[in-house]
User: Which sequence fits this backbone?
């Protein structure tokens, strides 16, 4: 994929966040995608009308203190993106935003339970954990995120009292995971009025994987 194509894909993903109702009232988000040892990342602008002038290419090893052309609010979160890519070679895209139901769990410091089958099919096969609060973009905050992602099965986290961070092999996968997680958060809250969400059988996680592999082979 060319650089231009990846830029278009990232802009398309930002627009999808808005269209799917995954942005809160302030429309705050930041997104990135890896291309080899380079990183494409939002450096400013509004997610509601993101354009290519709002994107920047960076060396993955770049020191965030010495990167030019970023608004302060976007410069603050550079280390979160670069350090996570350096730790997890399987992650090719990251989305951070404040979707209303998932962020309610983050503010309550409660994990989103993995009780919704589409979440499992998107590769989120355990409760989405909460990373302890620390100031946005701080060393403590990034260290907490890296600790949670040290487990290879972690692909999404809740940032306590703030929002979410979701990874995927590419932007489409990250968007799919974010969407399923937000649906799960909304459903878990509605289920509270009906006696609470019930867990899937323990074997469901293996079953979902097995069925997906069978159908992939058949198609
Ligand atoms: Zn945020």
Assistant:
């Amino acid at each position: 994929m060319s650089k231009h194509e990846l830029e278009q894909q990232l802009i398309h993903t930002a627009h999808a966040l808005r269209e799917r109702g995954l942005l809160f009232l302030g429309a705050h988000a930041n997104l990135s995608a890896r291309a080899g040892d380079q990183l494409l990342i939002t450096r400013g602008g509004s997610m509601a009308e993101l354009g290519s002038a709002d994107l920047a290419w960076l060396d993955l090893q770049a020191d965030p203190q010495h990167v030019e052309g970023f608004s302060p609010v976007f410069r603050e979160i550079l280390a979160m993106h670069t350090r996570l890519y350096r730790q997890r070679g399987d992650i090719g895209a990251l989305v951070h935003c404040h979707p209303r139901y998932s962020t309610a769990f983050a503010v309550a410091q409660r994990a989103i339970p993995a009780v919704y089958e589409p979440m499992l099919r998107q590769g989120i096969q355990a409760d989405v954990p909460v990373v302890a609060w620390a100031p946005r973009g701080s060393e403590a905050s990034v260290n907490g995120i890296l600790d949670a992602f040290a487990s290879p099965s972690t692909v999404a986290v809740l940032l306590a009292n703030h929002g979410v961070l979701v990874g995927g092999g590419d932007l489409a996968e990250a968007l799919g995971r974010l969407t399923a997680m937000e649906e799960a958060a909304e459903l878990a809250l509605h289920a509270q009025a009906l006696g609470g969400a019930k867990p899937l059988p323990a074997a469901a996680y293996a079953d979902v994987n097995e069925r997906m592999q069978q159908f992939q082979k058949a198609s």
Summary: Strands lie at 29-35, 38-42, 55-59, 93-97, 130-131, 156-159, 163-168.
